[in-house]
Amino acid sequence: MTRISFASLIIAVCGFTGASAQSDLYKTLKQKFPDDPAVFVERSEVLTIQLKDDSLQVFTDVSEDILHLKEQSEAYASGRVYGSHFNQVKDIKAKTLIWDKSRYKEMSVSDFKKNSDRDAGIFYDDSYYYSFNYPSVSNGNRTQLEYRSFQKDVKFIPGFIFSTYLPQGKTSYTIKTSPQVDLFYEVLNDATGLIKFRKFEKGGFKYYEWTATNLPSRRSEDSSPSIRYYVPHVITYVKSYETKKGKVNVLSNLDDLYHWYYSFVDGLDKDAPSPELKGVVEKIKSQSKNETEIVRNVFYWVQENIQYIAFEEGMRGLIPHNGTYVCEKRYGDCKDMASLIVSMLNIAGVKSYRTWIGTRDLPYKYSQVPTPLVDNHMIATYIAADGQYYYLDATSDHTPFGLPSSMIQGKEALIGLDKDHYVVKTVPEIPKERNLMTDSIAIKLDGNQIVGKGASALTGYAKVFGGYELDRAEKDDVKRYVTRLIGKGSNKFYLDDFKVANENDRDKPTRINYTFRIGDYFQKIGDELYINLNLNKDYYNAFINTALRQTPKENDYRYESLEYSELTIPDGYVVEYLPPGAKQDGDLLGFETRYEKKDGKIVFSKKLYINYLLMQTNQFDKWNEAVKSLSEAYKESLILKKK
What we know:
The protein is 19% helix and 40% strand. It is of the alpha+beta class and 643 residues long. It has three domains: 6-249, Sandwich (Immunoglobulin-like); 255-426, C8orf32 fold (Roll), CATH 3.10.620; 432-642, Jelly Rolls (Sandwich). It has an eight-stranded mixed beta sheet. The protein has an eight-stranded mixed beta sheet with strand order 27-28-26-25-32-36-35-34. It has a five-stranded antiparallel beta sheet with strand order 22-21-20-23-24, covered by helices on one side. The longest helix is centred in the middle third of the chain and has 15 residues, at 291-305. Pfam families: Transglut_core. This is Transglutaminase-like superfamily protein.
């Protein structure tokens, strides 16, 4: 058979010109993606931004064409099309093309069911989806989908992500605009130039077109950040457009975004607070010695008394309630909790500010993308007299005053000072030394087991995350969590008794005192005992397979772990071999171990730290070097010998 191009195959088969083209397309895609159950023959979106009657009409036409390459592709027999208040879905058409000897037969989908798309973490969500099933999905058949979605506000253009759960033969994203529209666009995460771009004019419209071919499927990998951190995608927004009355700014700069945001909170504090809210604030103020203490106590009151419940209901997803309403209801989302903090501090005579911010799920900055793509969260900000910024996120109810929630570390905060003024500040990334877990144990040999007692302490984010675990655990599960936290030695570790203190006091370390035993941990050979004092072997052989892993690794927070162990030397034994210490000062992972004989005991200490929030793929080799050194250090054993 004459060899023909892949693009030609797509054109031929889409036109149903015969069995030869279908056969060649199937063979080409099967050879290109042998391990995938199906492939997008073509996937496209066309975003139209059209000026009508001095306003913008915005809609997207979506088209998908999937060729099934294996009999086990039933997982792709069901389809979903998502919509929301801001994104109304219309005109859904779906069908299966069933290959029958030399041609396709169409079988259309007729039953589309509208469902509420309730996220488990959201109390009320106005998003929805249409669900349907493709008939006769099997090897060699194709499923096709088309629909149009109308965007109610041009500010919410989501852009386009090229990577998907299936490989793609051809992918395209096109923006079609009226010539009066001033458009910003940028391709991110495409260092190798996979995405091809062209700009042209046709029929009185401007066209911006991005295309790619033969894109592999996106593989799920543990601890990966949001895909927007690493997959090729287009971000775009309308800066302004011209009308007969003049220029209309949409998102020409950050000023436009801020003034739009501020319109949602302007006037929230104009009404007098309720007697209940005033009473709460007056009591807090009377119990506080200074302004900073007032802020701390207001923050803690909101954490303890307002139930976080997420709402996503049209503009309600952007507009908070006032403080009186939230105080009365005793629940609210992030915007409501931030609004309540600001209202309470305002009553107390303390200035604070509502603040828009994105969590670490979003990789963008306000200076780069002044659109709603940047943020998905709201907090309050207090600026102390000494210039220190306090980022108050009451949705994180275990986070102590002075520590931002872990999910906003390193993110830009848009702090609304007043109607016309704002400031952008970067939330600090908390250093590893402030997130500390210490563990001190005294152990001795008893028969064929090790018995001991220990004390652990958690501070910073180590305490915060531990607090969430303890909160969520049922009574019987607390012991299991504590065992996971302090377990050591082997799977024969047994926690005999424990006591947890200060877990609900945000300003004090959580402390755990415990007794334990570990069966069959040490070896006895002749008159020698071999004991490995590295009872905690965190990250042992935790190598990253650089040949396979394609995505960065994300970490909740930087931290340090300090361990101290005292082993009582058994009567009748002397130290035959004391392992040397080891040290590695890695950029991402580091450690230091020390051994010392002292007063009839062997004292072992270890410091371990993890020092990254996002590890890029070009840092994997450094990580593996540090893991290799750590794993070697873990192999060292103490040798005791009978006198």
